[in-house]
């Protein structure tokens, strides 16, 4: 199975790196393209078996799966370039945030029919096979859906959802990486103010956040259930939590997520 990624930047490059570590795809069957040689060299230095090219139309010709990973304002230009070389046996995956199937159909329709198109929104942890990827499908068979889910499951976890939910899933799962990291940064800064060295604070906060997330997944529990186990009545955790809430913690997160939408 050959996969071509058009646009090997933060996300396209991360997907290529993740795929190169997966068992489903041979690294020599991965091709990435970019506008500049510098980006392609960076991919080669990660794994020299990944094919690199600046020729998008050549890259898509023999691919079974084509992943479009350019900035949203470049999708029209890229589609114009590659659409003549795409056929209905190929699968297109657009990771371009905010571009609906209705629009992708117009861009990639071959003759009377559109190929199978997926929208996938991973996050940057895909480079280390720890992504959460939301996927919506259009014109695809159940077999094709299974195939695409199996690829992204190898690169973390994936979920098939209706297209109308992609916006919310993007805010939570993709922008969410930045939101979680901003909490981590804030906690590190607090730790330093209380006397810890930066590297010590980072280690403590990173493992604590990872452990908190693992608790939810391992115990299949609700966050408040786990919080109850930490908050000693009259103790220090509830004092900290309430102070954060007075400053608008929950509200700030909900407002931020809705603004991302
Ligand atoms: N970053 C993220 O966390 C996420 C991003 N997305 C979506 O992914 C898409 C890409 O975002 P991101 O990776 O952050 O952006 P980047 O700018 O990092 O990557 C875009 C890539 O496209 C390449 N490119 C530009 N023009 C061409 C061209 N004509 N032919 C081939 N490649 C080209 C660039 O090449 P060069 O490097 O040489 O300039 C660059 O490598 C966006 O649409 C975004 O909505 C979706 C989910 C998460
Ligand atoms: O910020 C953005 O627009 C992209 C889409 C999701 C994550 N990054």
TrEMBL record:
Pathway: Amino-acid biosynthesis; L-proline biosynthesis; L-proline from L-glutamate 5-semialdehyde: step 1/1
Pfam families linked to this entry: F420_oxidored (PF03807), P5CR_dimer (PF14748)
GO cellular component entries: cytoplasm
EC number(s) reported in the record: 1.5.1.2
Signal peptide region: none
Oxidoreductase is among the record's keywords: yes
Keywords for this protein: Amino-acid biosynthesis, Cytoplasm, NADP, Oxidoreductase, Proline biosynthesis
Function: Catalyzes the reduction of 1-pyrroline-5-carboxylate (PCA) to L-proline.
Protein family per UniProt: Belongs to the pyrroline-5-carboxylate reductase family.
Protein name, as recorded: Pyrroline-5-carboxylate reductase
Organism: Coprobacter secundus subsp. similis
Originating gene: proC
């Amino acid at each position: 199975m050959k996969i071509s990624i058009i646009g090997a930047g933060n996300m396209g490059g991360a997907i290529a790196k993740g795929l190169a570590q997966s068992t489903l795809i041979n690294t020599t069957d991965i091709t990435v393209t970019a506008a500049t040689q510098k980006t392609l060299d960076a991919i080669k230095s990660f794994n020299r078996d990944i094919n690199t090219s600046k020729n998008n139309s050549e890259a898509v010709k023999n691919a079974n799966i084509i992943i479009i990973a350019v900035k949203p304002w470049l999708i029209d230009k890229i589609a114009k370039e590659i659409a003549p070389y795409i056929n209905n046996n190929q699968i297109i995956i657009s990771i371009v945030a905010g571009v609906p199937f209705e629009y992708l159909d117009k861009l990639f329709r071959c003759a009377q029919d559109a190929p199978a198109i997926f929208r996938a929104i991973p996050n940057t942890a895909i480079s280390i096979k720890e992504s959460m990827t939301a996927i919506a499908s259009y014109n695809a068979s159940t077999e094709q859906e299974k195939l695409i889910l199996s690829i992204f499951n190898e690169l973390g976890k994936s979920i098939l959802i209706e297209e109308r939910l992609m916006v919310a899933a993007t805010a939570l799962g993709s922008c969410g990486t930045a939101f979680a990291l901003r909490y981590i940064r804030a906690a590190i800064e607090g730790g330093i103010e209380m006397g810890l060295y930066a590297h010590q604070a980072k280690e403590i906060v990173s493992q604590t956040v990872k452990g908190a997330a693992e608790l939810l997944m391992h115990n299949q529990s609700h966050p408040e259930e786990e919080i109850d186990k930490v908050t000693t009545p009259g103790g220090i955790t509830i004092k900290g939590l309430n102070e954060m809430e007075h400053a608008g913690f929950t509200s700030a997160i909900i407002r931020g997520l809705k603004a991302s939408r």
